[in-house]
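User: quick one, sequence for these C-alpha cells?
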C-alpha cells in the first residue's frame, strides 16, 4: 500500500517521523 503522510506540524515533527518508521517496517511505501 502506498501511503502519503501529512500533518500541520512540519515534516520534521517527531510524531510523523515515528509513524513513517512504523509504516516502513510494516512494508508500506511511504
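Assistant:
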Amino acid at each position: 500500500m502506498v501511503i502519503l503522510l501529512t500533518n500541520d506540524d512540519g515534516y520534521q515533527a517527531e510524531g510523523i517521523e515515528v509513524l513513517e518508521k512504523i509504516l516502513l517496517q510494516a512494508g508500506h511505501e511511504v
